[in-house]
Amino acid sequence: MTIRILDSNLVNQIAAGEVLERPSAAIKELVENAIDAGASRIDVAIEEGGKSFLSVTDDGFGMDKSELALAIERHATSKIPDNDLSNINSFGFRGEALPSIGAVARLTIISRAKSSPEAYKITVEGGEKSAISPAPLSRGTKVEVRDMFYATPARLKFLKASTTETGKIEDTIKHIAMSNPAISFTLKDEKKERLNYPQAPDLQTRFSDIMKEDISGNFATLATAGNGVEITGFASLPTYTRGNSLQQYLFVNGRPVKDRLLLGAIRGAYQGLIPSDRFPVVAIFIQMPASDVDVNVHPAKTEVRFKDSSIIRGLMVTAIRNALLDSHFKVAQTISEDALKSFRSYDLPSATTNKNTFNFQYSFGQSSSKKSTANTLFEARSAYVPEPAFTAESNPELPACEEEDFPPLGLARGQLHETYIVSQTKDGIVIVDQHAAHERLTYEKIKNAKGTAESQLLLTPEIVDLPEANAAGLLALKDELEKLGLVIDGFGEGAVAVRAVPAIIKDTDIKKLIEDLSDTIADFKGALSLENKIKDICAKMACHGSVRAGRRLNADEMNALLRQMEQTPNSGQCIHGRPTYIELKLKDIEKLFGRR
User: Domain of 293: which CATH number?
Assistant: First the structure.
């Protein structure tokens, strides 16, 4: 078989296979061209998911008659003025988009340059070009595409249902709109207007429009810079997650990208804060010199290659972690909203039909067979401790407190079901899961004390029998465990001797702790780093060393827990990613009772 030059239309069809996977890819190319044309408004219309019809209309600077003829030629562009592919500062710089669309569909372009007295039209059907003719258009450019892939039926049959293709187009518009708040976007199909994003003053407003909620209550703000790279954006609080990664928006110099390095950085930043099967919602914008990133790696320009990927990853992780640390013990606003929605009103039984009486007591101050351990559990702070303990029989008044004196998580007013602490804040109430909260506090102390953790020596070593493989795995990490305060030695085949435990969890069930730790270590995958193994071990130890649900606490203990939560990073969620507390604002509670 001899070598030959391919027909130009066949070349365009091959290029279309690289660039135009589906109608959403064509819309992406056309919308990016509109942005490069200086548009302030971009309107997209589709029918049958873009398979039968799609159009993109903008109010940009348009093209004159001569430029319109060149626009449909391969490798014709105005986007690379210096012929330097290492310094790309535009979006639709590739030359094959329009001719590729014209090779597989029926393409019509109408455009009017700002300096031109009239608009002009050109059509391309299956690679065949028409003559340029006058057409009505007030300004900008309108591109219409009909019968996508009619000239390449093999590609057409691989398209999904119209609803699926419409969803892909919506996602494309959302990504592009996210990084261009100064441009208004609309998307309509044959049934309704699907998207409408008016011009926004900043990224936060546009992100709120796209998320359809005020993001301030659920997101932390990112801002960091270094080595000529600036990273801004928004990262959801650990208690605000999704079941997939579809709502992770990443941008490099304004260009939407899907990059494994950046997605891995997000996972690393949230490690230990959310469950492994949950995904945070983020919108991250990276600005950097164009010469330090290659955007021409993929025909559709969805992937990039960084000159120094380690710097980008490090800055990403730092930006997210710092933002979450700044949010401190904050939990997602949606947690409280969901709690309020669950409240319902009931009619209590009348006194004549129900002879039972209610016996209510304040939780703290009650007599208990269990000895108080306030000093061993928490370091109580006297500044926020209420009045001396009291019982319901004394008919007490709640301790008075001026509004400005309330700490962020308020003052403990009682305990429900010996599991939940109820606290009064200056403008509402807080309900705390005592086990989940103390679990996070214990985890942070063990993790941060790595290498210097205090140990509590046991008078008599605790001998724990284990499966031989589990014992071996536990002893393999003996040195690392000792840094965390857990001192063990081998004690024959399939047994370990526990000589000391971390002082912070000295009252735990040692046998159960060692059994659980050995099971956790046995489940470790070979690729898991030592650092991640230690984090998992810390989490398991924290769970064993925490105040359990069902444990009655006194006032000092409850307030001490609240104060430590206020000082501990990430205390808004437990080590499993669940919220440790919910907050109900007084105004919302008043609405429940019809007072507002």
Answer: 3.30.230.10
Listing from the earlier edge strand, what are the strands of the sheet with 229-236?
A: 219-226, 229-236, 282-287, 248-252, 255-256
Q: What gap in Å lies between CA 214 and CA 582, rounded to an integer? A: 18
Give the tens place of pLDDT for each residue, 6-35: 666 666 655 554 567 889 999 998 999 999
Domain span at 263: 203-327
* Domain end among 300, 327, 354: 327
Q: Are residues 173 and 292 in the same domain?
A: no
Cβ-based neighbours of 198, under 8 Å, separated by 6 or more: 184, 209
Q: Quickly count: other Cβ atoms within 10 Å of residue 359's Cβ.
A: 6
CB-count exposure of residue 208 (10 Å: 0-12, 13-18, 19+): middle
pTM of the complete model: 0.68
Most confident of 4-18, 361-375, 506-520: 506-520
Query: Looking at the domain assignment, is residue 350 inside a domain?
Result: no
DSSP string, 367-380: --SSPP-HHHH---
The model's pLDDT over 37-92, given as tens digits with 9 standing for 90+, comes to 999 999 999 999 999 999 999 999 999 998 898 888 876 666 665 555 555 666 75
Verify that 223 and 190 share a domain, yes or no. no
Contact by Cβ (8 Å): 501, 541: no
Q: Which position has the higher pLDDT, 547 or 366?
A: 547
Domain with residue 161: its CATH number is 3.30.565.10
**DSSP alpha helix (H) spans, 234-287:** 260-269
Q: How many CA atoms lie within 13 A of 78 on its CB side?
A: 13
> Do residue 321 and residue 338 come from a single domain?
no
If asked whether residues 163 and 262 sit together in one domain, one would say no
Q: Pick from 287, 283, 285: which is nearest to 218 by CA?
A: 283
| Average pLDDT of span 122-128 | 88
Residue 273 lies in a domain: yes
Distance CA 94, CA 111 (A): 19
